[in-house]
Amino acid sequence: MKPHDPAINASLLHTANVALRRVTTAFTTKLLLAYCCVGILLFPLYQYQVNPDGISYINIARLYSVGDLHDAINAYWGPLTSWLLVPLLLVNLQPALALQLLSLIFGALTTIATIRLSSIFILTDRARSLALLTAIIIILSYTFFASVPDLLFLCISLFYLSYIFAPDYNRTAISGVIIGLLGSLLYLDKSYGLYLFMAHFTLFTYIHYLQSNDRRERRIVLLKYVLGLSCLAIISGIWIHSLSDKYQHFTISTTAQYNIKIDSLGSQGQPMHSQGLLPLPYPSAVSAWDDPSRLTVEYEKSPRLRDWVRWQIFHIAGNVFRTFYYLELFSVFSIVIVLIYASYYFISRVSKAEEGGPTRERRSGRRSLQLYWGQDHGKLHSSVVYSLVTMLLYTAGYEVLHVESRFLWIDSILLLLLCAHYISNSQFCATCNVKLRLLMTSIIFSSFCLYPLMQIIIHANQNRYIYITARELHNNYHVEGSIASNDNGGDGWDLTLFYAFYLDSKYYGATKKSITDEELQRELGKYRIQYYFSWDDVCRLSECRKLADFEVEFLWTTEKKHLIVYQIRNVGS
């Protein structure tokens, strides 16, 4: 065989990969231990960390723990996080503490997944060590970001990519079951995972099929695809059947449908901020946010085609702009690295494809793709191109919906590994001396640490003061029951929900911003509200009896909000 025979290259890559894993075992063990130690030390600073989504996941977990499966089955919130919370709640662990402990565990698993994925990239020992140390800081910031399902989604995605990116992907078919299981977990965590997995797994099956050297390998690739989809269909099908049975119509999830309405032409935004007090979706719910699919979103249902197209263009353009902004937050070098690889690799692949046959005209479409994807250049091909394709596919789905930094966490890890790969390349700073090259390496990796460190600092002791004042309201004033609030600019709803959560109470939402005293009295009576939280305002109703007031403090900002808690007396229904 020729020296550059793909079979020889694949064998060498496999041997090198095994050797590399043996060498790095001690280092990665220390790395995981470092994450656990730092995470445990920082844990007390974030024990009160919770957000509205987390409260809904906790309440759903409570329903599962008491056996209320009918109300627990939810078409908006994925069940996986709540299922994993149940054992912690059954041992009477404080719910917010249990959620943070679960997040710490997910962070450790994400660290393992990052280490596993990094072994596929060609990296120098120094670049690998710096990349994984940087990843620890990034993952710690995600651990304490109070977005547990997004961290779990990142963890599962990285494990899935470590199988899909593997150089020996077309050797055995049995791992297709594991891939299908991971795809099912992505769906059970967030509904977006089902669409992402189906598109990504199908695309990469096609790519691996074209890269296969013989009929046996192609059969393995196809069998792996069938096994993966079969496993996905069985596990996901059970959950889809449960949802459809509860809601009396076929549904995979209501999350995408709800978010599309929120971001539609003429939308008034989240109903909680514009529609006043809202009924609870079921008796044991904390707020209407426990099942948003029950909410009615106001938007323009029959817009003119021209207006709809124009709005969609501006909407997607805005999301693309925010995506670039978030990528730059991950690192100021993000876009530069992507452009370097995109221009270098794809241009070189096109030129190689054109040299692969006698004439361009004689080549069929399939043969062109085989030439494009089939030439094996080792780990450079699998780690770089696969990462770029994954980032593009993963991010594109959010462009038509809504983009937030937590939705793009997988991009931050892939960008970090791409940077480490580029630094390991001999062409990186080729004209620099050793000291300058080391300086440039330090600057690039440090750029990935700035935003995570800022997040770790900012979120320290967040909600601590709310927890303390909630305990005071409970112990000194015995506040517990049905709660409503005003909405001073949109954050009154979120803040009062935190109080309702810590007070083990029901929160019926915030009243409309422009509401008369008579309307307020009717609203409070309609829902039999017992306590009214007024932010930076006063209640003028004679039925309002002032219980307490607080200056609610927010760490790392100069902002303070004045809260007055009223007890509502003699409000008729």
Question: Could you walk me through the main structural features you see in this protein, from its secondary elements to its overall organization?
Answer:
This protein has helices at residues 6-42, 52-65, 69-72, 80-90, 95-118, 125-143, 148-164, 175-189, 192-211, 215-247, 255-262, 305-330, 334-354, 365-374, 379-399, 409-424, 434-458, 464-477, 491-502, 517-526; strands at residues 482-485, 506-510, 531-535, 544-553, 560-568. The protein folds into two domains: 24-254 and 307-458, no CATH class; 464-568, D-Maltodextrin-Binding Protein, domain 2 (3-Layer(aba) Sandwich), CATH 3.40.190. Strands 2-1-3-5-4 form a five-stranded mixed beta sheet, with helices on one face. It starts with 5 loop residues before the first helix and ends in a 5-residue tail after the last strand. It is built from 20 helices and five strands. The protein is mostly helical and 573 residues long.
At a glance:
The chain is built from 20 helices and five strands. With 573 residues, the protein is mainly alpha-helical.
Rg estimate, integer Å = 27 Å
How much of the polypeptide forms β-strand, as a percent range?
Answer: 5-15%
Task: Kindly give the count of domains.
Answer: 2
Global outline: globular
Distance between the amino and carboxyl termini: 87 Å
Task: Pick out the low-confidence regions.
Answer: 1-10, 357-380
Percent of residues in helices: 55-70%
Strand order of the largest sheet: 2-1-3-5-4
Please, what is the oligomeric state? single chain
